[in-house]
Amino acid sequence: MAIPLAVFIGPPASGKSKVAKRVAAELNVPRLDTDKLVVAQYGSISDIFDQQGEAVFRGYERDAVKNALQEEAIVSLGGGAVLNTDTQNELRRVPVVLLTVSEEAVAERIADPKRPLLRDGISAWKQLVSERMPIYQELAWLTLDTSTGDLEAVAHRVTDWIRSGYPRESSL
Ligand SMILES: Nc1ncnc2c1ncn2[C@@H]1O[C@H](COP(=O)(O)OP(=O)(O)O)[C@@H](O)[C@H]1O
Ligand SMILES: O=C(O)C1=C[C@@H](OP(=O)(O)O)[C@@H](O)[C@H](O)C1
Ligand SMILES: [Mg+2]
After folding, report:
1. Residue 141: how many CB atoms within 10 A of its CB?
2. Half-sphere CA count of 92, side-chain side, radius 13 A
3. Domain range holding 28?
């Protein structure tokens, strides 16, 4: 069974989807974004939350994650996907990149209302992140902050890390 070349986790708007897309392009390999897989099959995330509720979304998300984690691809998860304990266990066997972003830098990134859990803005984001950060940190092999600097630079660091055979963070 194949496993991903890298899986991106982290808070909403930390850059997982965008950076993963860029890394996949640099490596010329497939890229899978679990939110995109859910949207393609079931429609917009906001509509799923509003019409069916978060628990139903988490079920769709889990199926998308399970499938994506069996592909030799660059994979970006939704920020809450790591709450699933089966997903946590599967992530322990694959190279996981945690992207972080400061509260100051994220504020303008979450002005767009496409994320139903962030309708209350930055206070909701802070709450989610404080609950999830221990899980993110426990799973991460490599952690990069996206608050400053551009997306291409972050992507390039991840590409280098993959090409170098996933060196331990302490040796970078
Ligand atoms: N250094 C950076 N790395 C990643 N994204 C950045 C960076 N600087 C600004 N951004 C912006 O932040 C947003 C991140 O969105 P996205 O990739 O969808 O995040 P996520 O998938 O983690 O929710 C994009 O609009 C992107 O252009
Ligand atoms: O943090 C979360 O629970 C969510 C994050 C979103 O993905 P991004 O982290 O890619 O924004 C998306 O899966 C959904 O809105 C729920
Ligand atoms: Mg995303």
Report:
1. 17
2. 7
3. 6-171
Residues in contact with ligand 1 by the CB-under-6-Å rule are 10, 12-19, 76, 109, 146, 149-151, 154
Q: What is the tens place of the pLDDT at every residue in 106-129?
A: 999 998 778 999 888 999 999 999
**DSSP label at 72?**
S
Domain membership of residue 1 (yes or no) is: no
pLDDT of residue 170: 67
Which ligand 2 atom minimizes the distance to the CA of 12? 9
The CB-based long-range contact list for 54-59 (8 Å cut-off, 24+ gap) reads 54/116, 54/117, 58/83, 58/84
Flag whether the ipTM exceeds 0.95.
yes
Which residue pairs from 118-127 have beta carbons closer than 8 angstroms and sit at least 24 positions apart in sequence?
118/12, 125/11, 125/12, 125/13
Examine residue 25 and state whether it is found in any structural domain, yes or no. yes
